[in-house]
Amino acid sequence: MNLLIRPVRLSDAQDINEMRRQEEVRAHTLALPTETVEFTEGFLRSMGSDDHILVSELEGKVVGMAGIHLLKSVRQRHSSFLGIMVRTEYQGQGIGKNLMEKILDLADNWLMLVRIELDVTADNEKAISLYQSFGFEIEGTKKYAIIKDGKYADLLMMARYHIPTQFK
């Protein structure tokens, strides 16, 4: 597999929109089936210096995406929120793992982040296992936090801490 991980580009909007609209991907994100390519383009255009998104490209097509958003408060600049998704037909092939390695390297070694947090649907066992393999811990549950398949569902709050040795 000749996988390329690179920063997102505006020209990726079509592939990202298709991925976000896939039923299995949408089930575990906040995406809606009515999202348009223009919506995705608007999101990409609105990215600022606090947003860092990487995509996995395979044979010219975006098959995965991971991003971190730095928290804006001066007292939280060491923290960020992470999101990741992989096209349904490419899940289980190591793409998510590769994206996590790259985005966490960026967070740890370039952005010097200490805390990375994320939310994951409580029934997404594969994602929870992936996050735990990278040191994420469950911090709590947001009850009835999202609507999934016409029902209210819980989200798990997870976080990973990377404290440089000079601060321990």
From TrEMBL:
SUPFAM superfamilies: Acyl-CoA N-acyltransferases (Nat). It holds the Pfam family Acetyltransf_1. PROSITE patterns: GNAT. GO terms for molecular function: acyltransferase activity, transferring groups other than amino-acyl groups. The lineage of its organism: Archaea, Methanobacteriati, Methanobacteriota, Stenosarchaea group, Methanomicrobia. Residues 3-162 form the N-acetyltransferase domain. This is Acetyltransferase (GNAT) family protein.
